[in-house]
Specification:
single chain; alpha/beta; Rossmann fold; six-stranded parallel beta sheet; 50% helix; elongated; disordered C terminus
Length: 340
């Protein structure tokens, strides 16, 4: 049995990590690739304090449906520093007949001599190096140095993985900027739903909103936040305020229709849009949004234009389309909504 070991903090796991696992699996004909989530990495602390359990969950989501790729909690269960040597020793007991390969990127290949007992690591496993697109780090020379110094078995794979930074992803999530294309789609949705990489103040709002809404509605709201991140850049709006508006755009959906109507103060008689205006009230009274920008944008998702001409309805995708159809059926003038 041939087992590949791709270790890291995966904070969070991104599309290039998955590419590396797939490239190594296919080119080296591996029977299994383990995404080994580090509990306590020896070279650097885990930024943002995201717990290993959450990073493991995201790795499991990334591996779901991927042939011969699995996320492993072995280092988490062992505890202590997540040294590759200790992991290889433990895996050798579980799989006594297996051949092991560590899967690393070009950026890590040159750092191998700085690992914990590199000579023992390279005695127990071969190395599969996945180059990065657009980066030439003289991998061939580094591989030859490792062969000469340690007798290492190093193979530079032919396919290349994209250059994606977990640090940049965390920074963008913190600031409310889009991360589309950087994470596997299911991982991105899970990241938005958990809020683990969002500011603490926003996470408090998010948890309150989650508790009030049905699971299906909450999933929709998180999808809306993803759309808000992209469109805030497109329309040059404050991404953090757009994220709050997206989070709260359906916050009144937890109320019965009569309460929505009373809170909304709306006199059009169009029941499906009561929650939009009622949501603006709840944003201030229940969620403490004193800034008028997100509170004003909460009802805007039913189709009206905000000040300065920004089509805030665009932030709310499917919700806006549904409401626009209602307005059209009721004969509301075209100027009140963006046509589809």
């Amino acid at each position: 049995m041939r087992i590949g070991l791709l270790g890291g903090t995966f904070n969070p796991i991104h599309r290039a990590h998955v590419q590396m696992a797939e490239i190594a699996r296919d080119e080296a004909a591996l029977d299994l690739v383990l995404l080994m989530v580090a509990a306590d990495p020896p070279h650097k602390p885990v930024d943002e304090g995201v717990p290993a359990s959450e990073r493991l969950r995201l790795a499991q989501i990334a591996a779901c449906g991927k042939d011969r790729i699995e996320a492993s909690d072995l280092e988490m269960l062992r505890g202590g520093k997540s040294y590759t040597l200790l992991t290889l020793q433990e895996l050798s007991v579980q799989y006594p007949e297996a051949e092991f390969s560590i899967i690393i990127g070009s950026d890590t290949l040159a750092d191998l001599p700085n690992w914990y007992h590199p000579e023992e690591v390279l005695r127990r496993s071969s190395v599969l190096c996945v180059p990065r697109v657009g980066i030439d780090q003289n991998d061939a020379a580094t591989a030859q140095m490792l062969r000469e110094r340690y007798g290492a078995h190093v193979r530079i794979l032919s396919a290349k993985a994209d250059v994606i930074s977990s640090t940049e992803i965390r920074a963008r999530l913190l600031d409310g900027l889009p991360v589309e294309g950087m994470l596997p789609d299911a991982v991105e949705q899970a990241v938005y739903e958990s809020g683990s990489y969002f500011p603490d103040a926003f996470r408090a709002l998010q948890e309150k909103c989650r508790a009030a809404l049905s699971p299906k509605r909450y999933t929709h709201v998180c999808g809306t936040m993803r759309a808000a991140a992209k469109l805030s850049v497109l329309w040059k709006q404050d991404p953090q305020k757009a994220r709050i508006a997206a989070l709260l755009h359906d916050c009144a959906k937890c109320l019965d229709p009569l309460k929505q109507e009373v809170l909304s103060g709306d006199e059009t008689g169009i029941t499906p849009v009561y929650h939009a205006y009622a949501g603006a009230v709840l944003a201030k009274t229940e969620y403490g949004i004193t800034d008028d920008h997100p509170a004003r944008d909460t009802p805007a998702h039913h189709g009206r234009l905000g000040h300065d001409g920004f089509r805030r309805a665009d932030l709310y995708g499917g919700s806006h389309r549904a409401h626009a159809r209602v307005l059209r059926r009721r004969g509301i003038p075209q100027s009140h909504f963006r046509g589809y």
